[in-house]
Write a structure and sequence with these properties.
CATH architecture of chain A: 3-Layer(aba) Sandwich
Number of helices of chain A: 10
CATH superfamily of chain A: Ribokinase
Order of helices and strands of chain A: EEEHEHEEEEHEHHEHHEEEHHH
CATH topology of chain A: UDP-N-acetylmuramoyl-L-alanine:D-glutamate ligase
Strand content of chain A: 25-35%
Largest interface: A-B, 32 and 33 residues
Shape of chain A: globular
Largest sheet of chain A: 9 strands, mixed
Structural class of chain A: alpha/beta
Oligomer: homodimer
Strand order of the largest sheet of chain A: 5-4-1-8-9-10-11-12-13
């Protein structure tokens, strides 16, 4: 099975305590597409400008990401984001956001993608996410990500969207923000009532928690020697997660648990270098090795 | 096998966002003794004053904790601590500490305890911890806890002590404080070089990490509906941990992993009410149920 990914493709300028980079490949759909591509076919729907470097297209092609849905607006500029991380690598400070061609992103899903069974609505405006969802005929699984900005500024649109989401991904502070609950298990329960039967709360270096019909799966994070740049970690997690499910074409809780572990392992590659420099250059054996190592580091 | 526990027995006055209590049973050795008592025999060495309520003695007796080493100074007052937790239940603010009889605590290990094989040096001054260790003939396993105060004020004494410790317990910020390393895996490596071959880094609601000769065990925390009072959680963890090892009389990594899970489960009971109100009133079936629930919430 293939995964349909809709979200942002961006050029990022990032400063972390360990270094900086300028106008490198980024965006929620980029990280998640490349991550998913290690497990399944990927169809990408996004928009870029005429300034989007050919080498980035080449990377996506190398990963066999289908680019029929990548709208290249020759006379426009690619969405760009500039951010800075403090010493503890927590939420970055946004220095500048230039929406550029992204400001009029109104995705038309190519006809051949409309029967997609695995859909990932990467982090973008929930109004656009809903417009995408409405174009998909009969998805088997809809996974959706978001961010604090939309919870704050498009709360009702997000809540409307959630009614039709199967698996909702958000981080701890977003879960608290959306639900108004401090205790994470209560937050998850409140969000479940908004629609999604399954929720994954991402806790970064502390792992993640999966809530499903009253059952819970808690998993720690893979321990890393160093984090270089956390940008895209959540998107990469999501891509590995849905890619693994599509590969197995199963969405039972047992498969979802493994998908979460694969998602979190994919994220470790993303954070070990800027942009997709590492993630774009690993192979299946690298992933398997980390999975086995993780398994032996968590069993008791 | 029995566990020898040396540490503080205290009367705590605590305020949390959910309530408050006055002069209730507390202390590092109290929590760890009661926790260990669900797995093995426990011999307690500590000091209290003439004001120490009989009901607390009764609780320890009910849990079959041997009190031959509990020095009751009839003309003195019991060590008392007053603390307040903020909304997020992180490190409490100390309002008052009255050392009382504890200020002259110079534990004499009863003759029949000197051949103890499982020794837990609960959180007290590392100088006292060392004086205790020197009285034990040939321990099979020495587990040691500490706190930020000793790292800051008795650093060299602590480092001297660590040379003779088998398993060292500390939390994330203490690990960073002691090692000077920000990344937790590097902090653990640095602390290993100080002596202890095995280190457990406690992360509270995010679980714990066990480092041993290059191998790593990461475990999330058991998810709770509500935390009422985190006081004693680390001590309770330690008690369950060493109690389980003593019960099985094994200290290989596989047994240690299970001991960590049991320790963290014991801690969940401690935090669900003030003092030992819950921890002192559970039974083996409660522990088994949580262990099984935890196992099913973490397997993949």
């Amino acid at each position: 099975m293939s995964v349909l990914v809709v979200g942002s493709v961006a050029l990022d300028t990032i400063k972390t305590p360990l270094g900086e980079c300028c106008r490198v490949l980024g965006g929620s759909a980029t990280y998640s597409s490349v991550s998913a591509s290690f497990f399944s076919g990927v169809n990408l729907v996004a928009v870029v400008g005429g300034d989007f470097p050919k080498e980035h297209i080449d990377l996506l092609k190398k990963r066999d990401v289908c680019l029929k849905g990548l709208d290249i607006k020759q006379d426009g500029k690619t969405f760009s984001w500039e951010g800075e991380y403090s010493k503890d690598f927590s939420d970055p400070k946004t220095i500048a956001t230039h929406l550029n061609v992204f400001s009029e992103f109104n995705p038309k899903i190519p006809r051949e993608y409309k029967n997609a069974e695995y859909l990932f609505l990467a982090n973008i405006d929930p109004v656009i996410q809903k417009a995408v969802l409405n174009q998909i005929e009969k998805p088997k699984l809809v996974v959706c990500d978001t961010m604090n900005y939309w919870i704050e500024n498009k709360r009702q649109d997000l809540i409307d969207l959630l009614k039709n989401i199967d698996v909702f991904l958000l981080n701890e502070s977003e879960a608290r923000q959306l639900s108004g609950e401090t205790v994470i298990i209560k937050a998850a329960r409140a969000i479940t009532k908004m629609g999604p039967k399954k929720i994954i709360i991402k806790k970064g270096e502390h792992g993640s928690i999966f809530f499903s019909d009253g059952s819970v799966f808690c998993v720690p994070a893979y321990l890393l020697e160093s984090v270089f740049d956390p940008t895209g970690a959540g998107d990469t997690f999501a891509g590995g997660f849905i890619g693994y499910l599509a590969k197995n074409d199963k969405i039972d809780d047992e498969t979802i648990r493994k998908a979460i572990v694969y998602g979190s392992i994919m994220a470790t590659f993303a954070v070990e270098d800027f942009s997709l420099r590492k993630l774009g250059n690993i192979n299946e054996a690298d992933i398997s090795r980390r999975f086995e190592k993780f398994k032996s580091a968590t069993c008791f």
